[in-house]
Predict the structure of Glutathione-independent formaldehyde dehydrogenase.
Amino acid sequence: MNAVVYKGEKEVAVEEVDEPELQHPNDVVVDITTTCICGSDLHMYEGRTDAEPGIVFGHENMGIVEQVGDGVDTLSEGDRVVMPFNVACGFCENCEEGYTGFCTNVNPGFAGGAYGYVAMGPYQGGQAEKLRVPYADYNALKLPKGEEHEDAFSLLADIFPTGWHGTELANLQPGDSVAVFGAGPVGLMAAYSAKIKGASEIFVVDRVPSRLELAEEHCDAKTVNFEEGDPVEQIKDAHGGGVDKGVDAVGYQAIDDDKEGDGAYDPARENPAIVLNQLIQTVRPTGQIGVVGLYVPSDPGAPDEMAAQGRLGIDFGKLFEKGQKFGTGQCNVKDYNRELRDLIIEGRADPSWVVSHRVSLDEAPEMYQRFDDREEGVTKVLLEP
Ligand code: NAD
Ligand code: ZN
């Protein structure tokens, strides 16, 4: 079958790989109908991780159940399903409490598992014609049959729940004001979640005009272009003081705010924590900050650059002075996706506006490059194997 295979820095190819098979009675194999490219894939694509060439990408997958293991009780051939990007067992202490992003069984030695992702376990990705789903009763959410809401449902694998999670980690309440840093697909879903939850005022910070326009149009957000001045000052000027809550949907690959003054916006290699520090300044004392943008561990065994990425210069003193709280980590997708699915089915939410492209799997190499360039108008890209 065809799959999107990582070849090396800034290169993927669509190549023939072995078809997945049932390996355990609890597995199903799914025929993929839609699989999305994610900002998280770009960490590997850009060569910033130790992902080995040859791995099949793809952790945002939906499709039709094609083969069913003998031990699977709740799924049948022909069921339409979407898979949370987390692979989780369902019975460890974390899964039992809903923390499926931190399952302790599926990937020993690392907190949590995922499909097609470096360090996240031996699970092949779904940017391919087929996907093996382990612990399938637990890791597949059933969808109404047919083709309705295909775009919106595909976002249940990651970014809609992850955006929602950002607002949960920030303990966003109706009437709160909130600043969301990053208007990539995840930040846009955080801003949209804030709107659904009844936030009073939503600020969204980025520098890509088409992404900021989406935030304004679909999330009723006030937009802040960080290339036009310090985003902290811009938000405080507009709001009159600190906002109640904040969400980081950027992560360690944040682009700096031109400290060199040369007009060039370089990835903030020296201190990848710029967004965290800006949030500490933007949010009012005792406010809460949800961090869903990805940060990597400071691993002494990792290549120099990666090890340095983990050492963040967070202004902990300011955080302490203001008595703020941080919530962090992988989204526990399963914890939200039944409810978010039902909001879509009932017409109370439709996140499909974030999708800019639906293309065939063959176009993955070109779309990876355009999404990685944060090209104007390229927001969320769905692949159709
Ligand atoms: P993305 O990487 O395209 O989005 C990042 C956005 O941040 C871009 O639009 C970029 O222009 C903007 N940006 C860069 N520097 C900035 C700065 N200093 N201030 C404000 N905005 C800035 O793609 P995405 O899919 O939205 O992913 C965002 C992050 O979320 C990534 O780090 C990704 O790995 C992470 N993620 C985490 C989870 C989770 O479970 N926690 C799930 C999915 C994605
Ligand atoms: Zn993702």
About this structure: The mean pLDDT is 93.
